[in-house]
Amino acid sequence: MLKDNEISIQTVDVRNIHANRLGPRDQEEADEHVREGMRLVFNNKFMRAKAIFQPHASTEPLYGVALGVIATIKDMNKAISTLASAYTIAKTQIDAASIKRSLKDSLSQYFSSFMVNSSSNELASPVPAPTTITATGATNTTTFLSNGVLRAHVIKAECSLFMALLQLSRENVVDYLKCGLNLRRAHKSYNIVWQEYKRMGQEHTKRMDRDTVSGVQFGIGAINLLVSALPPKILKIFSSFGFTCDKELGLVLLKLCLEGKGIRSPLAAIILLSYYSVLTSLVPQLYSKELAGPAVECLLEAQKSFPSSCFFLYFAAKIARIAGNLPLSLQSFSFAMDASRSEMMEVAMRNVTLYETGWNHALQLDWESAARCFDDLAKEEYSSALCMYAVGACREMLGQRTQGILAFAEVPQHVKKEKEQQQQQQQQQQQPHSASYIESYVYKKVEHFQKSGYQDMDFNLPMLELMCIWNAFEQMEHGALEHCLEIVNSALDRIHERELRELSIRTQELAPSTSPPDYYHHRALILLIKASVLNALQRHGDSIPHLNWIMDNKDDLTSDAAAWIIPFAYWEAGVTSWGLRNYVKSRKLWQQGLACSKYDFEYRMAIRFNLALAKCNDIGIGPTEISTTEKILGMHAQKRAMSIQYPTST
C-alpha cells in the first residue's frame, strides 16, 4: 500500500527523447490510455490511474502532466517537480523536431506567424486554410507546424500553467514572482499553437488531434480567466507581462473544453469551479447571486460524467456554503472525504475536507466541533500554525481561557517548524524562502497576546477576527449573526469598563505610574468586526459610525498587529456604500484600500479589491480621482506600518 501511494518519476534522459511524428488520428489512438487514466482519476481510482501514468512519465510528456495532476493535492512540491520533468520532455520533443525541419519550412512558418495579429484574442469562426500560387500557377497549401510539435507546445505550456497555479496558492512574494514567470512562459507557448489553429481555419480538424485543440482552448481560457482576477499590484511583480486578458473569451473557451469531453474536460470544470468559488468567497457581497447559477450549471455538467468524484463533491460543498446551506455543505464535505477512502488520496482529501468542515462548524458557532477539527489537523501538520491558532481561538470563544492560552503558546513552535521545513525544501530546489502571510499574522497575534501577559484577552475575539479576515460572515445564518453582534457588544462594554477604571485612577492620584488608557487597537478591531457583521445583516447604515471611528483614529493604529485594520476598514466601508447604493463612493473607498501596502494579507486583499473594482467597471462606474489631501492622509496613516518586517522565530 505504501509503495502504491508513492509518486515518483525517473530522471529524464533527453538523449532518449525523440521528435513526435504521429499524425492527428494516430495520436488520438495513442492517447487513449491517458484518456482512460483521467477517467480513473475523476472516478477516485487514483492508484490505478497512477499505474497507467507513472511508467511512461519519464518519456511521454502528457503522462507526466497527468501524473502531476494526481500529485497536486497530495504533495505540492512533488507535483511541481513532476510537471518540471514533463516540461523538459515536451521542450526536447520540440527541439528534436526543429533540428530536422528545413530552412525553407522554418522561414515559411516564421513569416506566416509574424503576419498573424498575435495581439488578437478573438474567437473567430474557422476560415479556409490559406494558400499560395506558384510561378507555374500551381496551388500550394501553407506549411504548418506538425501535430507533434503543436501537441508538445500545448503540454509545455500546460506544465507552466499548473506550476503557476500552485505557486500562486502559496501566497508569498517569491512564489508570486515565479508564478508570473510561469504564466508568461505558458502564454508564449499557447500563443504559438493558438495562431497556428487560427491560420488552419477549417483545416484544423485534419491537422490537429482533438485533445491538442481542446488543450489550447483549456490553456488560453484558463490564462485569460486567471489574469482577469489579478490586480495590477500583483501583475507588477510579474514585470511586463505583455498580455491583455479577455475574461469572456476565457469563459467561452473553458466551456467549449468542458463540453468537448476530452482528456482536459474535467480539468476545465475544476478551473471554472475554482474561479466561481474564489469570486463568491472573496467577494460574496458582489458576486454570490450573479455566479451561483453558472457555478451550479458547471457542477451539474461535470457530475454527468463523474457523479462520485471527490473533487466535484468538494466543490458541491463549497457552493452549498456560499448559498448559506451549511448542513448540506457539511454533508457534501463528508461525502468527498468518504469517496477517497482506501485510496492514495485518502489522507490529503481528509485534511482538505476536515479544514473546510472546521470552518463550517465555526460558521454555526459550534466552537467545540471546530476546535476538534483544527486540533486533528495540527497533529497531522496540515497548516499547523494556523490550525493551532484556530484551536486557541475556539477555546477562547468557549470561555476556556487556560486551554486557549496553552494552544496559542504552541503557535510559535509550529511557525518555526513550518519555516524550517519550507527552507529545507527550497534549499533542495535552490530557491529562496519567503514566509506566508498567514504565518506572519498568527505569529504577530500571539506575540501581541504574550506582550500583555494575556491580560487583554477580554478585548479580543480571535475567531470572529479570522472570520472577518476571510469575509465569512456573509455565509452565516441570521440567528448566528445576531449572536455574534451580542458577543461584539459585550467586548466593547468590557473595553469601556477598563478605560473608566484606569481613568478613575488619574482622578485620584497625581502622576500615576500607569500610562493613560490606550485601547485604540482593541476598539478599532472590535468595531471592524461589528461593521462586518452589520453589513452581513444588511444593516448597512448602522455600520457607518463604527467605520467612521476607525477612519478618524487611524493615526493611532500603527502597531504591527493593527496595520491590517485600515485597508480592511476601507473594504467594509465600500461594502456599506454599496449596500446603500452609493456605488461611486464604494469605488473611491476600494481604490483607497487598494493603495494601502505593507500589511498582512496585502496580496489577498489586492485580489479582493481588484474584483470589486472590476464589478464597478462592469456596471459603468469608472475610476475616480483621489484628492491630494486624501493621498497625503493615506500615506501618513501607513508611514509607520510600511516599516513592518515579517517576524523571525527563535
From TrEMBL:
Q: Which residues are listed as membrane-spanning?
A: none
> Which InterPro entries does the annotation name?
IML2/TPR_39, TPR-like_helical_dom_sf
> What is an example of a Pfam family matching this protein?
Iml2-TPR_39
What PANTHER family does its record include?
TETRATRICOPEPTIDE REPEAT PROTEIN 39 FAMILY MEMBER (PTHR31859), TETRATRICOPEPTIDE REPEAT PROTEIN 39C (PTHR31859:SF1)
Protein name, entry field: Inclusion body clearance protein IML2
Where does this protein come from, organism-wise?
A: Phascolomyces articulosus
